[in-house]
Write a structure and sequence with these properties.
Elements lengths: L14 H10 L2 H9 L5 H10 L3 H9 L8 H5 L4 H18 L6 H14 L4 H11 L7 H8 L4 H10 L5 H10 L3 H8 L6 H9 L3 H9 L7 H10 L7 H6 L5 H8 L4 H8 L6 H24 L5 H10 L5 H9 L3 H12 L3 H9 L3 H11 L3 H9 L22 H11 L4
Helix pairs in contact: 2-4, 3-4, 4-6, 6-7, 6-8, 7-9, 8-10, 10-12, 11-13, 12-14, 17-19, 20-22, 21-22, 22-23, 22-24, 24-25, 24-26
Length: about 425
């Protein structure tokens, strides 16, 4: 064997005796040598590279005297227990290397942690993630790799807690990660910059949006807040956290008052940070809305809803606004008739779709009828009685989340001509 002069450390055994044990000793002798912190670094490196016993290699991985130059060998060891042990040791030594951030030893450590972050065994990556998520010295490159892992157990702790992730990484993950929980984890981070907050909202993930609004550590610019309030018209889940958010500007509070329910209005009226003028404006808005709703109820045509729908359809007036108003008034018969007429199907087909609470089919019907994704959401929430977790929200607040091909497929299942 060839030993380099890369390492230097005092020896307890004679060099010749260490070599003999490493090359020809029993497993018990080699294990004792691998555990001994007085063993030379050359010998420990040799055992990491050549020893056939995983017991010996595990001892090497856990030995504080094992040179960091051996960590890349141990990080790709065929035994996962060896890899777990070296992962724990590398994380432990990170704080001692910060003063030498650009040194060769730091480079060896980061390289080895990067290898472990790509380990084929979930248990190894999960252990590394759990250890590094709260670690002040986590290398940014390693954090970025773990954060992009498709396994939730690996990436979620890093996405939610690790301070080493850059804004560039977070924005990129929000744009590219296929799972909804990734955006929700990022939205719950202790601190979020305005740029990342905007990227969370841009995902169109309603639960992530709610988590962001509730997160007082998230920086939300006045422009973004205005966007959020506007989109909140379609997302009831956002109403209460918005009304409760600290430092809500008076103008945003008044905009909210125009469309939220009674319980949320009460929160707005009880805010201690709004001045008397703003509270007066909110009260007036609430009163005007109540009067408008009452007038609309009185003006609704009470004739047969199906005949009403047919008459409007013939006149070309079966608009989205008419269907939306009928939905607000809980006029199910009219809405079912309107959708049937616009999609050239039957009321029975419409009733069947809404009875089984099928969100994809409801979206496809609205699309076929020429109505917006926002109305599709309103119908899912209303007559569809779709669970909040299954709702299909508009992408970006306006576009259908389903592809045209998928909606055509849904229409085919219902039996509606495409």
């Amino acid at each position: 064997m060839v030993f380099g002069k890369l390492f230097s450390k005092g020896k307890k055994l004679l060099e010749s005796e260490e070599k003999r044990i490493a090359e020809k000793g029993s497993e018990r002798e080699r294990h004792a040598l691998a555990k001994d912190e007085h063993s030379s670094q050359e010998i420990l490196y040799y055992l990491a590279l050549h020893d056939p016993s995983k017991k010996v290699r595990k001892a090497v991985a856990g030995n504080a005297s094992t040179p960091l130059q051996a960590s890349s060998l141990l990080a790709k060891d065929k035994d996962q227990d060896v890899r777990l042990i070296i992962a724990r040791r590398l994380v432990k030594v990170l704080p001692t290397l910060t003063a030498e951030k650009y040194s060769q030893l730091y480079a060896f450590t980061v390289q080895s942690l990067g290898m472990l972050a790509l380990d084929e065994v979930l248990k190894v990556r999960k252990a590394l993630s759990e250890t590094l998520k709260d670690h002040a010295y986590t290398p940014p490159a390693v954090a970025a790799q773990l954060a992009r892992d498709l396994e939730r157990e690996v990436s979620e702790p890093i996405l939610r807690f690790c301070a080493a992730l850059s804004d560039d990484d977070l924005v990129d993950i929000l744009k590219t990660h296929p799972a909804n929980w990734a955006a929700e984890a990022i939205a719950g981070r202790k601190k979020l910059s305005a740029r990342v907050s905007e990227a969370v909202i841009d995902t169109g993930n309603v639960r992530a949006g709610k988590a962001l609004i509730m997160n007082e550590g998230a920086e939300i610019t006045s422009r973004l807040l205005e966007t959020i309030v506007e989109r909140a018209r379609e997302y009831p889940e956002w109403h209460k956290p918005l009304a409760s958010r600290k430092a809500l500007p008076p103008l945003m509070a008044m905009k909210l008052a125009a469309f939220v329910d009674g319980a949320v209005k009460k929160i707005l009226l009880e805010r201690s940070d709004l001045d008397a003028v703003t509270i007066g404006e909110i009260t007036a808005i609430i009163k005007r809305r109540a009067e408008f709703e009452e007038a609309r109820k009185k003006s609704i045509d009470k004739t047969d809803p199906v005949e009403r729908a047919k008459k409007l359809h013939a006149a070309g007036d079966l608009t989205e606004e008419a269907v939306s108003d009928a939905t607000s008034m809980h006029d199910r018969a009219f809405v079912m008739a309107a959708l049937a007429l616009r999609t050239k199907s039957t009321i029975a087909d419409m009733e069947k779709v809404f009875d089984v609470k099928a969100p994809k089919s409801i979206c496809a019907i609205c699309w076929k009828a020429g109505y917006s994704a926002r109305l599709a959401l309103k119908l899912q929430q209303g007559f569809g009685a779709v669970k909040a977790s299954a709702l299909i929200y508009p992408r970006g607040g306006t576009d259908y989340a389903l592809s045209e091909e998928e909606m055509r497929f849904q229409l085919g299942i219902i039996g509606i001509p495409v």
